[in-house]
Design goal:
Elements: H1 2-9, E1 23-31, E2 34-42, H2 49-53, H3 71-82, E3 90-94, H4 107-118, E4 123-128, H5 135-141, E5 147-155, H6 159-166, H7 172-185, E6 188-195, H8 202-216, E7 222-227, H9 235-241, H10 250-260, E8 266-268, H11 287-298, H12 312-326, H13 332-337
Parallel strand pairs: 2-3, 3-4, 4-5, 5-6, 6-7, 7-8
Antiparallel strand pairs: 1-2
Length: 338
């Protein structure tokens, strides 16, 4: 497929120290209905196998991985980050890939990570592709932690969006199976869904996210809507630099949350680079207020957005209408300004 070749062509492998983790920080999240500090760790591994073969159109995490990482290298990273723990009750583990891919994180290393974190935290969240998850892996992992949540990047329940916009081959069928596996072992499931993958208009993106949220709800304990942000050396980045892609408006994120707040799963969104030109944004003057409202909604501190207002909301509506009229997902404002 041509898209797979184009996505891969954007990659520029770089040399990194395999013994150095990528990043760690603390952020707010919800645990048992209370707002707590969540500790985020990004280990440097060889990265997602799909990213190395081709990859998703919006994902640039492969740019931070090392070409080869030995188990001892990851354990060295673990020793370094454990010294930074400050009693946060929740920890999120990311590898720029798949925690349950034995070729990326060996079973022995996985055990050591879970044991080390399980002794310090109440809940551990890890991430993997749905088709890689096996029952024995989850059952074994549950021996090391009190609570385990498995985050699965579904992105959309529309197979055409997955194939032609995201460049992903696995959809709701694989997601439902992984969810069943996780729940049977006693783990919970967080479902990641995208807002505005490339080639979709603003209105198409909103409708796809809302529909996907409702269709993924039966298989999810949490549904996290991720507005696409422009990451370097991706198809989205190429389109963005040509004026053919604009990250979603924050008003679009608000509409998606409003139309999915009745789901059984906990609905949330934490817009990466929210309010910045490469992340979900509005006009600039209202961005901070809207981003804060989205964060409050995600933490259960508000349940509606009726108090939000800005003149740019009319611009957002006109923008969405113009894209439909012009039969293009390109940024109509950028086109007029060039």
């Amino acid at each position: 497929m041509r898209l797979q070749q184009l996505v891969k062509a954007e990659r520029r492998p770089r040399d990194f120290d395999p013994r150095q983790y990528i990043s760690t920080w603390t952020e707010k999240d919800l645990l048992h209905g209370k707002v707590v500090d969540a500790w985020v760790i990004i280990f440097r591994t060889r990265g997602c196998y799909w990213a190395r073969a081709s990859g998703c159109s919006m994902c640039g995490y492969v740019n931070d991985v090392a070409q080869e990482v030995a188990p001892a290298d990851i354990l060295h990273q673990l020793d370094a980050v454990l010294r930074k723990h400050e009693a946060q009750p929740m920890v999120k583990v990311y590898t720029s890939g798949n925690f349950f891919d034995d070729h990326e994180v060996s079973p022995e290393v996985r055990d050591t990570i879970l044991k080390g974190l399980g002794d310090r935290c109440d809940k551990v969240i890890v991430e993997t592709l749905s088709h890689l998850l096996r029952a024995e892996q989850v059952e074994h992992a549950m021996h090391h932690v009190d609570e385990l949540e498995i985050a699965l990047g579904l992105e959309s329940t529309n197979d055409r969006v997955l194939r032609f916009a995201v460049n992903k081959m696995w959809g709701l069928k694989e997601h439902a199976h992984a969810s069943q596996v996780a729940h049977a072992a006693g783990a919970t499931v967080k479902t990641y869904l995208l807002i505005k993958p490339p080639f979709l208009t603003e209105r198409e993106a909103i409708e796809d996210a809302v529909r996907s949220g409702h269709e993924a709800d039966p298989y999810s304990d949490t549904v996290s809507f991720n507005p696409v942000n422009v990451q370097s050396r991706t198809i989205v980045d190429r389109l963005f630099r040509r004026g053919e892609y604009r990250p979603p408006w924050l008003w679009s994120v608000v509409e998606v949350l409003e139309r999915t707040r009745n789901l059984h799963a906990h609905v949330k969104s934490h817009p990466t680079a929210g309010g910045m030109v490469r992340g979900a944004h509005n006009c600039g003057s209202c961005d901070r207020k809207v981003v804060s409202a989205i964060e409050e909604f995600s933490l259960g501190l508000r349940h509606e957005f009726d108090d939000l207002a800005c003149e740019c909301k009319d611009v957002w509506r006109a923008y969405s209408d113009a894209q439909e009229f012009m039969l293009t997902p390109a940024d109509p404002i950028a086109i007029l300004e060039t």
